[in-house]
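Predict fold of Beta-amylase; 490 aa.
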Amino acid sequence: MVPGLFRIWTLSVVMVALAFGGLVQDVSNCEAGQSMHCQQQQQPQQQQDGEDYSSLLVLPASTQASRPGRHRLADIKSGTSQQGNSVKVYVMMSLTMVSLNGTLNDPEALRRNLTKIRETGATGVMSDVWWGITEPEPQKYNFAAYRQFFSICREVGLEVQIVTSFHQCCDEGSDCYIPVPAFVRKEPGIWYKNALGDETRAYISLFADDVKVGDRTPRQMYEDWVQAFQLEFQSDIGTLIVEVMLGMGTDGELKYPSYENPAGKWQYPGIGMFQAFDQHALESLKAAASTAGEEAWGLPPSAEVTGYYNSFPNETTFFRDDGGYQTSHGKFFLNWYSQALIHHGANMLTMARKTLGSKVRISGKIAGVHWWYKTKSHAAELTAGFYNTNGVNAYANIATAFAAASNAIVDFTCLEMTDASQNPAYECGPQELVQQVTWFCLSFLVFICCCCWFCCRLLLFVFLVFFILHVLLLFIWLFYFVVVCCCSFI
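Predicted 3D structure, encoded as tokens:
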């Protein structure tokens, strides 16, 4: 009992010290969902005072968005500053800041806008660095536009946070359409596929991570790209470039494209569909079933069982209460599906830390799938890869993986949402979801991103609650110690 309480006390002191010392990372990626990005890019840019603000992303104030969980403060990123109670602000740059041919759009207008940003007191900016732009041919990298952008940021005194965007931006035909490199996009058989045979080429299937595409695997491609970035900007990493967020799925988030494949079929609050039907996923599942001695479990459940993109949980035999997700077969499948996602994320984060070193913050973004959270099955989370039912805690498992990957930061969405703002018929639980994620990130001493001033203070409040509870535990321990000592003398 004594050692356990001592460890808890020590952990509490460390956490409070971090909170008050300003070391809790600022850190929230408030990058908007790709659908919102695309909608904004297609709208005419407004001008004020004769200035062109097309190099910035400014989203209209909104309480609803086309993708739940992503209607957030999309143009700023905030966190604890070292100056009293102020917060750092990072402005999200436009998706079309760099053209598809690798040139910086209107550098002079960009410089003027960045200067205005700095004059407002902002700390820095955040920008996607697109794989599809920077590697037009295998292992031939072009970071010239980003070098120019970083130079302007340095001159005006802004820090930079970047996203390694290994995913596609928006859909074909959009003004902000940025596909993955052509030499990858043309390859068949390496893309996520659902039970209907639909596939998306927005991000390579994680089940193909170790499959040769030409003379390299996707995992090697990601590592080669990060190494090239490190070589190009080694003097800036840790100084000008203060954070690198690893893109680990569609929209840059660690998730399966359960509500994005194919584009346009899913509508909120549909449960989405499992993405476990590409040839490499099927091979992986078959091997796992064989290892478990259950050959019959070598196929994923069909759409007739799990439903379709816009199904509700109670309309399916798999996700309804006491449905297939609670059977031995269902549990086996869900564990395999979620562990594959976590393994992919852990590999990506570990690779980034190994390549970039300890001078820069490493982070990864997790989707906030809050709809149907209050149902027993957590159906929408399950199809996205978050196994959060049957006594399994998806976010504790993810926090463990992030902690093991050199203490990578968890960037979590929907932090500013409330249950009351959602339709009660959809059993949404954004507040409970945030509490769950926050609790287990703190348990593993993993920093968590927050999207606004309120969320930063909310995390500090949680730290204080931890501290007060453990002070009480310390007094209980001291009382216990005194009583034991007195009894021993008697």
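The chain has one domain: 26-448.
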